[in-house]
C-alpha cells in the first residue's frame, strides 16, 4: 500500500518542503504559484482527454472566462472574492454549454472546434470594452483576501491555497474515475457504439466531463486573475493556457491522476529556469523537443513509466 501510494506521498512531501526551503525567495515561490495554476488546468485537460476521450485545444476559453467572470463579479457586483472564485468556475462551466454542439464531433474536429470557441471568447472580451476594459486591460478588482490571519495575496498564502485547490481537484478526479460514471467512460472509450447499445448515453457523459473540466479550468483562471490583479484579452485567452497544460499532462502521463500535476510543475519550472536561460527567444522549441523525446521513450509519460517499472518488478519477483 505504501509503495502503491509512493508517488502521491512524495508529491505531498515536496509540496510541504518547498515553502520551508524557498519561502524567503519570492521569485521561486512565484514560479511555484504559476506552476500550480498550470497544474490545475493540466488536470482539467487530462480529465476531459482521459475520462471524456476528448482532446481539447481550447481550454484557454474556460481559463479566460473564469478569470473575467471572477474579476467583474468581485469589482462591479461586490461579491466576496472566495465566492467570486467559485462563480468564475461556474460561469466557465456555463460557457461550455455553447460548445455542446461540438460534442457530435470527434478527434481533431472536436479539438479545432473548441479552439475556435476560445478565439470567439477572446474577440468578445476585446470588443466589450465597456465591461472588460478591452485591449486596455482591467485592473480595478480585489486581490485575494486575508482570512484567519492568513494573507492569501502573499506568495506563501496563494501557494498554500493553490496546493489545497489542486488537492481537492485530484480527489474529485479520483472519485469520478472510481465511480460507475468512470467505468462507463472507460467502456465508451473502448467502443462508443457498444455502450450505446446497452443504454449508456455517451453524449450526456461527454457533456458532464466538459462541464467539470471547464469548471476546474475557470476556477484556476479566476485564481490567477486575483493573484496578478490585471487582465487583458491577449493574456487571459492566450494560447499558452491551452498548449502548456497539454504538454504538461502528456509529459507527466495524462492517463494517470498525479501525472498532469507533477508534469505541469516540472515542465513549467524547466521552461522558466532552464529553457529560457538556454534560448531566451523561442524557448518553447526546447519544450517541444523534450516532449517529443518523452513520447518516444515513454508514451504514457513519467508516471506511466513508473507504473510500467513497478509492474515489471512485480513480475520479476513472481
Highlighted features:
318 residues; 1% strand; 15 helices; two-stranded antiparallel ribbon; mainly alpha; ABC transporter involved in vitamin B12 uptake, BtuC; single chain; 2 strands
* H/E topology pattern: HHHHHHEEHHHHHHHHH
Task: Say how many strands there are.
Answer: 2
Structural class: mainly alpha
Q: How many strands, which pairing sense, and closed or not: the largest β-sheet?
A: 2 strands, antiparallel
Summarize the structure in words:
- The protein is mainly alpha-helical.
- The chain has one domain (6-317): ABC transporter involved in vitamin B12 uptake, BtuC.
- Helices cover 74% and strands 1% of the residues.
- It contains 15 helices and two strands.
- It has helices spanning 6-22, 26-51, 60-76, 81-95, 108-127, 129-132, 155-178, 180-190, 192-197, 202-228, 233-236, 240-252, 259-278, 284-297, 301-317; strands spanning 146-147, 150-151.
- Strands 1-2 form a two-stranded antiparallel sheet.
- A hairpin with a 2-residue loop joins β1 (146-147) and β2.
- The model is unreliable at 310-318 (pLDDT under 50).
